[in-house]
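queue> holo job accepted (carboxymethyl coenzyme *A)
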Amino acid sequence: MSNDLHTGFDETKYPYINKGLEGIVAFSTTKSSIDGQSGELIYEGYNIDELAENSTFEEVCFLLWNDRLPSQEELDALQEKLQTRRELPQVIIDYLHSVNKKSNPMAVLRSAVSMLSESDIDLPDDSFYEKAINITAKMPTIIAAFSRIRSGEKMVAPLSEGSTAYNFLYMLNGERPGEQAEKTLDLCLILHAEHGMNASTFTCRAICATMSDMYSAVTGAIGSLKGPLHGGANTAVMNTLLELAEQGENADAVAFTKDKLKKKEKIMGFGHRVYKVFDPRAYHLQKMAKKLSEETGQERMYKWSMDMLNTMKSEKNIDPNVDFFSATVYYSMGIQPDLFTCIFAMSRISGWTGHFIEQAKNNRLVRPRALYVGEKNKPYVSISER
Ligand code: CMC
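queue> job finished
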């Protein structure tokens, strides 16, 4: 029967499909607001530029989990919890040692986060705030540990002091980072923390809406972020720049970009479903990319990036998104390209769990419809006669 008695939905009369759910509003939220025409991004009422200038990642976590900025006392308490919950359960350390070293780090992160649910088995199901802290505290340890183990190095135990950015760089490189490296990564974490109803956040909320648990929702979200049309784009951007580098010092990024466009290939790190102007996060990342590439002798990467940016603007009128310059920033910091998306996840965990908490407070099952375009009433033919 095509007509749904409860909703009046008649699939034969449905006028159109919003392919990719473009323009569909599925949830209300206070987490963030994006104005795609003016290029404005707001977290819980605060402009991203203000937060980038004045805040820290931990403060943004508090903001997204509590809908307000913390007092100093509240921030100290959150920081202490994050610092003291960084250690991994043995079962995950064993997993990181046993998993194939060639595995995609996002796949490893996804499985390890799923296994993390064991570590808070005694927490009540609705201890969402505590669970959000647990996952946020442990994700950097998982990423850094896998990075070292796969290179044949010993994993570095987390510090019970310092910011998320400081501790991550320490665990990754085995030495304490300088103030500038810590600040740069902290700013990247602020900029990637939250972004409306993107694909991974939608996944997280849809899983939450079945009244499943936070670990399931975050595991699903990591899987969604991994794709190159979403968070995986930052690694794809770096691969494009490295492909260019293979052509030598004098590689022509303009011709390279035009050639890809001619072949109808997408240029990673450009375009956005919502922004029709320069992504406001990309401004901050561009500034960092320029500074860092000069300091580390990677000027040519930055020049190629600008050549690509100008070509995309003149040929397609498409601007860069958050992933474009973040690639050069992480590369200049000496981070391996296939870890870039994990760093995105390590930040976006704050937004995902903020949305989970919000969804759980005012829940309804997420259950859209599909337009059936197949045949109906086909006679069943027995297998011996097919
Ligand atoms: N390179 C070349 N052409 C592009 C690009 C691009 N990066 N992005 C969009 N277009 C063109 C596309 O070919 C299409 O042209 P036409 O109408 O002539 O066929 C038009 O712009 C619309 O593109 P679309 O793919 O239908 O747009 P969408 O809203 O479905 O997709 C997007 C948005 C981000 C998936 C897309 O812009 C894209 O694939 N970009 C590259 C991947 C990327 O950088 N992803 C990161 C997104 S931002 C951060 C995040 O969420 O993780």
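queue> The chain has two domains: 32-226+350-361, 233-332.
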